[in-house]
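Hi support team,

I've been running sequence recovery on a batch of backbones for a student project. Most finish fine, but this one hangs at about 90% for roughly twenty minutes before it completes. I'm not sure whether the input is malformed or the queue is just slow. I've pasted the structure tokens below so you can try to reproduce it. Let me know if you need the job ID as well.

Thanks,
M.K.
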């Protein structure tokens, strides 16, 4: 396994991996670097982002075991001061993302008190009556944390510390990335898609914008140990363990929502499993954990650099790891080429441009304009162009302030940056399971670049405004002056580019060809 995983590290994976069967460790390894000086180790701590929801769900069931709440209790009964239509949502509906909440109540690093969070969530609109529709909601899990805060008698963080994070062997599974109780040990610096690094947990809070839906951090060994403990009845009662592991709301493609987890049928790995993943908010981490009940096997991975994320590595090696077969290695690296010879800006006929530069001994092509984005980032199979256009229409309504969420975004933009003027759409890409629409917003005479990722009801799932650069994809030479995406896992766009004299030719799926003339 180490030979294969070391090859993935050479190809760009930076992070940690833990695999166990029946509670006994099969693999514990680390690769890459935690920062610009320190290697990752098996003791390196990573933010686990939305995997925190699994811990919040376990906390709710622990309180139910103690008779402090019932799953059919309504949020408004447990929190009498909560206003708005979400009062009618039950605890179980919040756990399964069927409360109807469609918006966000705050950004991860937005200082927000308990009182402010209650008020913000109470003001959110519902996409449907509680129980009628599945819609993933960070706000719903923060509402669960508020319920824990109220009914536990000790508070959300203190209850996790005393009842949920302790492991059977006496250790504790990490802690919080920001604030107390803090996750101990050395921390990996998270690097974003644009190469910038984030902090290592200096946000001073209060934390109720992310509480319950994110915020935890730990090593992959701790995550694997906690997962085994959860599903073998050592965190909550046997009945609650079965309830957490039972597939709930069907969400399609062989998946069902379970409390804090997603249950998969046999189509993914040949046997049923539960999994959950987190992106670590804006700190550049990615983590994923899988529970395979037939063999009590856990696979936990975390990464701190975007070249090969933990989820992408799991997608590449997970099936072989589960089946006990030799792990695949990355795609073969490319041949040598004179990258400097093709550096320049290439103009498309519809007005967009493609700029070729050299980064880390690779050819980086930046797409500016909707036609350029469409050429370099064609939608993958299963994502029709109509879905991209529908997403852009929702972003248009958002930025025009036609929705509650949009009015909040406009207010936040004007508070942080300045007046919001004309919005120019720069194209949409399918990225990491979400759709991002890039825009340029004129403010005080200057363009501000940003992107938004919305759910199907127009709620903001992720956004970055301002963002550092236009969509950019790195390429490696294939020979004969052609280049293919630097994509060891095979998840990047199905494109290639070629150069002849002063022209760049982009070849996409289904024979699509785009040509651009060099202008600088």
């Amino acid at each position: 396994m180490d030979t294969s995983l070391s090859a993935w590290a050479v190809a760009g994976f930076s992070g940690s991996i833990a695999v166990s069967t029946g509670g006994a460790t099969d693999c514990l390894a680390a690769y890459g670097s935690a920062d610009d000086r320190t290697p990752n180790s098996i003791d390196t701590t990573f933010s686990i982002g939305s995997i925190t929801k699994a811990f919040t769900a376990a906390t709710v069931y622990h309180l139910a075991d103690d008779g402090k709440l019932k799953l059919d209790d309504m949020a408004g009964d447990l929190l009498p001061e909560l206003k708005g239509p979400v009062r009618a949502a039950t605890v179980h509906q919040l756990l399964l993302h069927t409360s109807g909440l469609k918006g966000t109540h705050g950004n991860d690093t937005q200082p927000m008190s308990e009182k402010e969070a209650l008020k913000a969530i109470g003001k959110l609109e519902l996409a449907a009556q509680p129980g009628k529709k599945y819609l993933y909601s960070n706000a719903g899990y923060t509402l669960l944390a508020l319920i824990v805060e109220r009914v536990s008698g000790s508070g959300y963080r203190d209850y996790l510390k005393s009842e949920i994070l302790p492991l059977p062997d006496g250790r504790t599974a990490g802690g919080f990335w920001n604030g107390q109780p803090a996750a101990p040990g050395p921390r990996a610096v998270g690097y974003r898609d644009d190469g910038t690094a984030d902090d290592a947990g200096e946000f001073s809070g209060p934390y109720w914008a992310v509480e319950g839906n994110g915020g935890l951090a730990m090593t992959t060994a701790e995550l694997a140990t906690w997962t085994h403990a959860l599903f073998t009845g050592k965190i909550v009662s046997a009945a609650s363990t079965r309830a957490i592991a039972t597939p709930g709301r069907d969400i399609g493609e062989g998946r069902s929502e379970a409390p804090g987890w997603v249950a998969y049928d046999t189509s993914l790995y040949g046997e049923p499993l539960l999994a959950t993943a987190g992106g670590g908010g804006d700190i550049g981490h990615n983590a994923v954990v899988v529970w395979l009940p037939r063999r009590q096997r856990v696979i936990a991975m975390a990464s701190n650099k975007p070249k090969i994320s933990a989820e992408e590595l799991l997608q590449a090696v997970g099936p072989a790891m589960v089946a006990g077969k030799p792990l695949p290695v990355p795609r073969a690296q490319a041949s040598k080429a004179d990258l400097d010879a093709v550096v320049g800006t290439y103009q498309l006929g519809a007005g967009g441009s493609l700029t070729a530069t050299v980064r880390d001994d690779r050819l980086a092509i930046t797409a500016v304009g909707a036609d350029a984005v469409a050429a370099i980032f064609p939608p993958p199979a299963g994502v029709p162009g109509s879905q991209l256009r529908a997403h852009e229409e929702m972003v248009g309504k958002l930025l025009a302030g036609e929705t509650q969420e949009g009015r909040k975004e406009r207010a936040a933009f004007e508070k942080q940056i300045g007046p919001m003027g004309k919005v120019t759409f720069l194209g949409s890409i399918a990225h990491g399971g979400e759709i991002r629409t890039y825009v340029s917003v004129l403010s005080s005479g200057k363009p501000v670049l940003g992107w938004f990722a919305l759910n199907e009801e127009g709620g903001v799932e992720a956004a970055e405004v301002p963002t550092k650069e236009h969509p950019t994809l790195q390429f490696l030479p294939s020979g004969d002056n052609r280049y293919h995406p630097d994509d060891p896992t095979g998840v990047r766009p199905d494109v290639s580019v070629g150069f002849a004299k002063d022209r760049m030719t982009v070849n996409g799926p289904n024979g699509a060809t785009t040509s651009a003339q060099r202008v600088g």
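--
Follow-up from support: It reproduced on our side and the slowdown came from queue contention, not your input. The chain is about 25% helix and 25% strand. No action needed from you.
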